[in-house]
Amino acid sequence: MTRVDATSVILAAAEKSNENVLVPPLGELIIGTISFGLLVAFFFWKVKPQVQKYYAERTERIEGGLARASSAQAEAQAVLEQYRAQLADARAEAARIRDEAAVQGRQIVAELRAQADREVAEIRARGEAQLAAERSQIVSQLRGELGGVALELATKIVGHELARPDEHSQLIDDFIASLDAGDAAAAAPAGSGG
């Protein structure tokens, strides 16, 4: 650079220093305004629709999520109410079954007691019938033996044969009948006096 050029640059700078630094030159101001206008137009033409679309999608997702959460909560509440109703029904059913089981248990116990009482009565009746049969058999056997012994004793006492064999049974029966009548007469005053 030459000295003339340097001087001209210094003079130009000095002239510029006299101007206000805060106010730009008119050419720059026009170009800046046009550029800013184009930038704003580009923003409203391309960027703003994208931002609005993204904002709308996000709003829709959030609102959809809230709606889904709300419906899920309502569904969960309905399921909870249904569960509580089923639980109450199950408890009522369990109480009913428990009551029925208690009633059936009492019925079964009553039936078993009645059956046991019937069996005891049957066993007692069979035992009494068997005892009565054995008693009558023993009584008839004892009558026969007692009659034979009495006839034998009477024969030994008298010393000869008493009556014929067909009369022996008649004599034995008469003797036993007289013994039974004596026992009955002895039992009657004892029973009436007591």
Automatic annotation (TrEMBL):
Give TM regions.
26-45
The UniProt keyword set, sorted, is: ATP synthesis, Cell membrane, CF(0), Coiled coil, Hydrogen ion transport, Ion transport, Membrane, Transmembrane, Transmembrane helix, Transport
Q: Which NCBIfam families match?
A: ATP_synt_b, PRK05759.1-3
Task of the protein? Component of the F(0) channel, it forms part of the peripheral stalk, linking F(1) to F(0).
What does the subunit section of this Swiss-Prot or TrEMBL entry state? F-type ATPases have 2 components, F(1) - the catalytic core - and F(0) - the membrane proton channel. F(1) has five subunits: alpha(3), beta(3), gamma(1), delta(1), epsilon(1). F(0) has three main subunits: a(1), b(2) and c(10-14). The alpha and beta chains form an alternating ring which encloses part of the gamma chain. F(1) is attached to F(0) by a central stalk formed by the gamma and epsilon chains, while a peripheral stalk is formed by the delta and b chains.
Q: What family is this?
A: Belongs to the ATPase B chain family.
Q: What is this protein called?
A: ATP synthase subunit b
Species: Pseudofrankia inefficax (strain DSM 45817 / CECT 9037 / DDB 130130 / EuI1c)
